[in-house]
Amino acid sequence: MSEQEQFDVIVIGGGPAGYHAAIRAAQLGLKTACIDAWVGKDGKQALGGTCLNVGCIPSKALLDSSKQFYNIAHNLPVHGISVENAKVDLKTFIGRKEKIVKQFTGGVAQLFKANKITSYFGTGKLLKGNQVEITGNDGSKQTIAATNVILASGSVPIELPFAKFDGKHIIDNAGALELDAVPKRLGVIGAGVIGLELGSVWRRLGAEVTVIEALPEFLAAADADIAKVAAREFAKQGLDIKLNAKLGKAEVKKDGVHLVYTDKDGEQKLVVDKLLVAVGRRAYTAGLLADDTGVKLDERGRIVVDEHCHTGVDGVWAVGDAVRGPMLAHKGFEEGMAVAEWIAGKAGHVSYDTIPWVIYTEPEIAWAGKTEKQLKDEGVPYKVGSFPFAAIGRAVAMNEAVGQVKMIAHAETDRILGVHMVGPGVSELIAECVVAMEFKGSSEDLARIVHAHPTLSEAVHEAALSVDKRAIHKGN
């Protein structure tokens, strides 16, 4: 391959945003290259970024496996099914996750091959004039060029200065997916998506889990009514969530990690065997940009872009976790594909107002659009309808009748402004609401659509009816 091979599009980063951008660009007939440095356990390139390697996919695999084990003791007896002395073979438990990861990272590689995308194994650095310097994992260097460069470098976990990752006692999300034994005591810093999901995995397997959250409110990003139900259920499961608690010190000693934190009652101490730090993620741009590219970073280290993900430098775009907006894989998917379409002269589009959020705990939590508090603060007139899963036949038959669907519509136009859910299968139920919101639908539109019976989706139907005080299966 020549020293200065020319492409139409070079994508730096093979995570969700990057590989979607590369595949879509190739589909549109653009000569495309993608650079990614993620190394799999076999020492080979593992496309898919954090999401496929140590994020979305492996965490869901462990959540599902741990749920099966939890159900044996806690949910099967009510069905008249008893199992004695159930055990977890952690090697198989983790091994299943590894197989799934390899299947999907390998799947992306096959898609690259099928779409004739040139894949480079290493890190990419943007140079002036849309050239990209590639540093291979063996230290070798080469430079390629393109008409358009898409920066999709992703994000990394935020590290606390007084609780630095050591990979053994103080771990990040990747470390929490690789434990070789169930810790007796697991500390989690941060009651966000990662902390709650991975805390749930190890709690179900028997760990004593304490979650320390600095904010005074639980799940402040979610609707307050939904967060309240979720907090109650997590407490029942044994997740000890301490709010308004700020970690000040974490010291590794022979008997575990010694934590010092402050809450409303003053200084508190806690000893855990493992400490998962999950206080958020930050844009990863280390070594990504030469000094003279003209690409700017904001005060949080994110790449500055406009509404079309363009950096202001001719032919340079940026997508995914490295730019503004929620750090969600599916947000990155859409930005990557939209940029490829804009480059090809087509009409790309990303609707940021209706991006769904999901937390894959038990019960699941999902929402899209505005919360009631946001609308109140903005002075928008609204009306609310809600419906409990306790009155849904399918949920009761499944023995998963916890939670509710809450729908918020404009008080005058009835347009759906937000839908918030906690309960069984809500990661899937939210999609119907996103479609309705995308098409500027009203609560009456959903209320008048026939929903199959018995299904969990009837909770959405009844919540829509409840907006106008006409739910059938509850008092309005």
From TrEMBL:
InterPro entries given in the database record: Class-I_Pyr_Nuc-Dis_Oxidored, FAD/NAD-bd_sf, FAD/NAD-binding_dom, FAD/NAD-linked_Rdtase_dimer_sf, Lipoamide_DH, Pyr_nuc-diS_OxRdtase, Pyr_nucl-diS_OxRdtase_dimer, Pyr_OxRdtase_I_AS
Enzyme Commission number(s): 1.8.1.4
Domain called FAD/NAD(P)-binding: residue spans: 7-336
Domain Pyridine nucleotide-disulphide oxidoreductase dimerisation residue range list: 355-464
Subcellular localization: Cytoplasm
Catalysed reaction equations from the record: N(6)-[(R)-dihydrolipoyl]-L-lysyl-[protein] + NAD(+) = N(6)-[(R)-lipoyl]-L-lysyl-[protein] + NADH + H(+)
Cofactor-binding details, from the entry: Binds 1 FAD per subunit.
Cofactor: FAD
PROSITE patterns: PYRIDINE_REDOX_1
UniProt similarity note: Belongs to the class-I pyridine nucleotide-disulfide oxidoreductase family.
Other remarks on this protein: The active site is a redox-active disulfide bond.
Name the UniProt record assigns to this protein: Dihydrolipoyl dehydrogenase
Gene: lpdA_1
